[in-house]
Amino acid sequence: MTKWTRWEDYVAGLCGLYAALAIFWTNQTSSSKSLMLIFGILLIVAAVLNLSMPGTPWLEYAQCALGILLFISPWMGAYYDHTGAAWTSWIAGIIAAGVTAAAIKPAIDTHHRTMPSH
């Protein structure tokens, strides 16, 4: 697995970017703006780290968790009734979590192949 080639991490990063930028064109509450911005930026950071350090399973798990947190953030922040913000969080979060979950097994396999034998 080489650096900067995993499409799953690019997709997760784009989901984070979309969630963070969507605060400008969707109807927001103070909690939705904060949660979408925080989880969006954290997804971007996790994606960049995953792209630069392939085969690091804990980063994949963290990225998947961030996607799940973005997905559940409308209920955490009580903005599930703000259609644009809620749907953006649900869709971006489930896509980010789904593509990252698909990338966990290959990351673990790469990690095991690169571990030195004792």
UniProtKB/TrEMBL annotation:
This is SPW repeat-containing integral membrane domain-containing protein. The chain crosses the membrane at residues 7-26, 32-51, 58-80, 86-108. Keywords: Membrane, Transmembrane, Transmembrane helix. The keyword Transmembrane helix applies. Residues 7-99 form the SPW repeat-containing integral membrane domain. It comes from Sinomonas humi.
